[in-house]
């Protein structure tokens, strides 16, 4: 049994590859290396460079490596960019998936795990978001993830492909420093960058209807997220025809201010944040109910926010040694 991991050289993908290897699963990585980094991969995991839009190459990899399951992470993931370049996002995330699914069904692959996002929920008006909470994405990025879920589910129903969509909440941290996120697009690296530059980190709005006025999110350690992929991949293998959707979070809300306090404590910088106006489109509070995957598969996150920040910081200092404090 071999799993094809598309986007396996990316930040989350490389963690999934490592977790699969630790669980004794054979993998092959398919990545166009547009943002992925080959050096993140273990030496004994083959890397095939290519796009999921390239039907012939995908078909060759599936046949050549006798692939029986696919974990599909290759995608564009920047919300702001998706607003500027919606057609590019639909092509990469939706058409790329459609081409891949065609090759997957032609090749008789049995299982398909799709990387989705809490962005499918948009601005949920509930304390805890369950998988039944209505999906109303607020950006082209979120739309491509929801459309992706539909494509995956419809294909499963039509062909018997066992499918799962995992809706990631706010991913942070690293299993080891060399696997850390190199992008500066989310709260934790954005704060690290400000601190390293000697500037004050920014709080995007402190007038939300939350206890301290700042936005609340459900942060999940990337190593826990990777373990969830292993659990779901195994469940798919033993449940032909499965049609699964899971939130992947901790079920615990943490405010921006609480994150800033913990970042100050971990990094040794004691820099008061400045408050700027809200970032347009940011919801006040997005916290997962993570009960379904706990009940159905027994998976639960193990790491807390401190683990996420300290491991992310080790990765940051590896890339930016000038950031380290004595
Ligand atoms: C982002 C994506 C979302 C995706 C999610 C998980 C956007 C707009 N949304 O969510 O689609 O599902 O990641 O991958 O990119 N913040 C500050 N100061 C900063 C940076 C962030 O106050 O310098 C705040 C934000 O306003 C928010 C929280 O920190 O309240 C988290 O922000 P971020 O890490 O960008 O993720 P989300 O916006 O929640």
Please give a structural write-up.
The protein has 326 residues and is an alpha/beta fold. The chain folds into 2 domains: 2-171 and 219-248, Rossmann fold (3-Layer(aba) Sandwich), CATH 3.40.50.720; 173-218 and 251-325, UDP-galactose 4-epimerase, domain 1 (Alpha-Beta Complex), CATH 3.90.25.10. It is 40% helix and 18% strand. It contains 10 helices and 14 strands. It has helices spanning 11-22, 55-64, 79-84, 86-106, 140-159, 187-196, 222-237, 256-267, 291-297, 305-319; strands at 2-6, 26-31, 47-49, 67-72, 111-117, 162-168, 170-172, 202-204, 216-217, 219-221, 243-248, 254-255, 274-276, 285-286. A 7-stranded parallel beta sheet has the order 3-2-1-4-5-6-11, sandwiched between helices. Strand 1 (2-6), helix 1 (11-22) and strand 2 form a beta-alpha-beta unit. The longest helix is centred in the N-terminal third of the chain and has 21 residues, at 86-106. The mean pLDDT is 97. The protein binds uridine-diphosphate-N-acetylglucosamine. Residues 79, 117-119, 142, 168, 170-171, 186-187, 190-191, 202-204, 215, 217, 256, 279, 281-282 line the site of uridine-diphosphate-N-acetylglucosamine. Uridine-diphosphate-N-acetylglucosamine (UD1) is lined by residues 79, 117-119, 142, 168, 170-171, 186-187, 190-191, 202-204, 215, 217, 256, 279, 281-282.
